[in-house]
Amino acid sequence: MQELKNAIMNRGKAINQDVLLVDSFLNHQVDVELMKHVGEAFAEHFKGRGFTRVVTIESSGIAPASFTALALGVPLVIMKKQTSKIMTGDLLHTTVRSFTKGTSYELTAKHEFLPEKENILLIDDFLASGEAAVGVINLAKQAGCNVGGIGIVIEKAFQTGHAKLTKMGYEVYSLARIKSMSENHIEFL
Ligand code: 5GP
After folding, report:
1. 132 lines ligand 1 (CB under 6 A)
2. Cis geometry, peptide bond prior to residue 59 (ω within 30 degrees of 0)
3. pTM to 2 decimals?
4. Among 3.30.470.20, 3.30.390.30, 3.40.50.2020, 3.40.50.720, what is the CATH number of 32-181?
């Protein structure tokens, strides 16, 4: 998606060879017009495949996933990284290792928002090691749901996530695939 690649080149910043900062348009300040186009691009690719829910992980996946759900006309469900006293009932949990923080966190969802047999489209901002996506897949399995596709805004193709998820049998569709990067250069596949 050229508009997204332009945003990455002009407004993103590789802080080293592994981590790309996109807080000017994706995960702190949000360019909602760009995110709307991102959502429409995912919907165009995944339309007609019977998705009944878009699922994402808080917080950076919410903007692109919202526009995708809007364009597909299905509900959005946000997997929570923190539980609270008011999050009660039949809860699903799994542990995920965080790429950016180097720590682990618990992913939680209410079973009532992921009822059995839903066909889930997972949308996330980044794909690195694929651990976050595997966490959503684990929660979906616990819920008795199918993950029918994975849409990624920015894939760091030099990391292991894409191979891991495709080997597990999942389709990964990324709007921008970064081949390599360093502080003053970003190259797309
Ligand atoms: P994974 O589980 O695939 O290793 O990492 C995915 C999650 O880590 C994404 O949801 C995203 O929040 C975060 N992440 C991974 N790599 C980057 C990066 O280069 N920049 C930013 N801003 N977040 C990243």
Report:
1. yes
2. yes
3. 0.96
4. 3.40.50.2020
